[in-house]
Amino acid sequence: MFENLTYLQLQQYWWIIISLLGGLFAFMMFVQGGQTLLGKISKGDETLKTMLVNSLGRKWELGFTTLVLFGGALFAAFPLFYSTSFGGAYWVWMGILFCFIIQAVSYEFRTKPNNFFGQKTYETFLYINGSLGVFLLGVAIATFFSGSEFFIDERNFSYWQTSTRGLEALTDPFNVLLGISLLFLVRISGAMYFINNIDNNLIRKRSVNSIKIDMIIFLVFFLNFLYMLFTRSGFAYDENGHVFIEKYKYLNNFLEMPFIGAIFIIGILLVIISVFNTVEKQKSCCIKTGGVGIVLTVMALFLNVGFNGTSYYPSVFDLQSSLTIRNSSGSEYTLLVMSYVSLMVPFVLAYITYAWYQMDKVKITKEEITSKDAHNY
What we know:
Blueprint: H1 7-28, H2 30-35, H3 38-42, H4 46-57, H5 60-77, H6 79-88, H7 90-109, H8 119-146, E1 150-152, E2 158-160, H9 173-197, H10 201-231, E3 234-237, E4 243-246, H11 249-256, H12 258-279, H13 286-306, H14 332-341, H15 345-359, H16 366-370
Antiparallel strand pairs: 1-2, 3-4
Helix pairs in contact: 1-5, 1-13, 1-14, 5-6, 7-8, 8-9, 9-10, 9-13, 11-12, 12-13
């Protein structure tokens, strides 16, 4: 089966898998988005807040499963990226990791008896994870397009050229635009999830109002991000692996790969349609439509920056140190063996789907949360 694929085809196959997992993780971050809305939607009502936290608490582990899949696949298939980025942009990735650690701690200890810190502290942790964690992740992903300052020698040892270790990415408006766009996108999906998962008119009303505001903010920042993306020069490489600057590279990629461009447009349209149906038609199932839209949009962005002779992790310090799917992947044998392991991915996705279905059979109600036998996060 996979033995008939060339080395380049195996590299492309794994970039497609990583792009898909990246899109799925972006969708699962509705949990992070919902965490930033706890105070806004509950407005001090502890029962409503408990309903919201429990709605998210039943899904956060599925998001972690997807994150582990995404990170593991990226590390195994493209180890040079992992060593360069995680070893170089140290403080950004450590900040992201810290934000996800305190999320897990918060769900486990928020309602534990004799809680040393108190519920408010863990709710603050959840807000930090949903806001700062998502923003930093968006900034880190934006550097796939804008580039970073590193040098890789002939032994594949990487050397980061700034003492701020990745924090310099925060000074680039392009990176910040994607970080803010991602933050408000997950807030929108989080609100749609509440509408779909919780049977409460007050939560539904406040979630709809939140979507109205967040959608406007999202569009302002995302459209500006797209404008800067399509008008900027990109990092291309030729058949010999020589990296050079190409004008309008990322726009050209969508035009030269119309199938990926179509996926990107369809994804954006699905998100817009899901928001319209939620706000104007008062539908409660739009998290599914919006989720598919998020997956397709993010997947298309990853494919854009990895295919068509494009460096997916460019170096603005030394162009020839830029990483591509061809010069940063594992060996052909490694990719071949992993390709058979990747056949397990559909089973993991099936598990996530099944677990989701079982947990969402019955919507969360106030009576369930306030009952004596309730297990609350």
